[in-house]
Design goal:
single chain; 517 residues; mainly alpha; Growth Hormone, Chain: A; 3 domains; 21 helices; globular
Length: 517
Amino acid sequence: MAVTPEKAAPLKPLHGTPLVLLTIAVAFSTFMEVLDMTIVNVAVPHISGSLGVSASEGTWTISSYSLASAIMQPLTGWIARRFGEVRTFVTSVMLFVVFSMLCGMATSMPMLVIGRLMQGAGSGPMVALSLTLLLSSYPKERQGIALALWAMTVVVAPIFGPILGGWITDNLSWPWIFYINLPVGVLAGIITWTLLHKRETKTIKAPIDVIGLVLLVAGIGCLQFMLDNGNDHDWFASPLISSLGITALICLTFLVVWEIHAKHPVVDLTLFKQRNFTVGVISLSLGMFAFFGINVVFPLWLQTTLGYTATWAGLASAPVGVLAFLLSPILGRNMHKLDLRMVVTFAFMVFAVTSYWFSTFDSAASFATLVVPRFVMGIAIPCFFIPLNQIYLSGLPASEIASASGLSNFFRTLGSSVSTAVTVTLWQHRGIYHHATLTEYVSPGQPAATQYLQQLSHMNLSASQRLGFIDQIVNREGLTLAVNDVFFLCAILFVILIPVLWFSRPPFGSAGGAMGH
């Protein structure tokens, strides 16, 4: 076996100005990478119009990035061991910058999609390694703060992505969504390399597991493509989506079997032998499924049903970040004093209550009414992300942090992708169901409906216009009842996750193997 990083003399943690600079550089690079997953969403109509393609083709700018990023995340551990964590991180940041620039310069949709694929592939290891580098640079007693700062950037970025994307698209032009990455990425890369190039981890020349890599690329590629395009093709009614689903299932099943027995696995599945890692990743993935589902459906409902603009929908969603931003450092500083299972239980309870709260709203809910539960939900965000990161990393040696972080980030991303597909489909299907149910009440036998139609007749509308107006109202109420269903199911999922979490075993200690304080 080659020399492993833990056999090398441990380096002293950074202090003072270098630590502050490194934290800013790493936090901004993480923010930039996660931001790019959501910043494009609101610009899709502008991009499609500019490049002369349909809106559904425009969504390839989102799916191509997610696809490449999802494939690269589980590979982070192997790449970092082969080339060194610092070198891999800085290279990842610089590739992200270069391909961001090419995305902004794209003059056709194929050119933009290729740029987004390369941008996603370049950024894959960035988020996982940003956590690894922060933990290795912070003193043991302050690693809770490092986790808090990292989690804060990962959580806040998707919230501000649509707002920033909407503002840039409205006031500048869509290429600037990509150009803003250039100064941030270049500075982050230079600062990180300057501070850490002498602290590079030892490398291991392990051969690449070609069969595992092929199975991973094929399996994740088909799965991500299926999730992104399933709704447009009516899911498994489409031969294309069915074929993708079967291919993904076969490839990923064979991948698991192969990687368990591979001498140099490309994805380290032995991490799942650790109880805390398994419980932490399950809680994080399913919690992210419910949390992300709310964050996808809520602005969609506001824009398509209640008539909000992209900017106002973003502003209605944004208050969730306020308390998350303020509480993260406080929680990080005091995490070693708390039972982390209790903290996450509190988070799931707040998520469940606020999700149920949302499920009670009707289509007449005011902006102020909608903002209050979003604001309250922010309390739960740091209590969910920060302790769970500590739980799944507890007991692992420093050499496995990159692999563990990459694998957990992959499942977190997968949870988000599956959530987007499932919640949007569920919302639309429940909307159709509620529309059909409500239509039954629009008949001559219903006094209220007859009275309303009579009121409309005074507005100088023709019979067909009156029925069209009624249909709009029924559609609005149907989609509102459907969004209530989605929120209610998310609330139930949060409650179910609470007992799962308690299968984890203390002591959780500092991340990276320090057992207890």
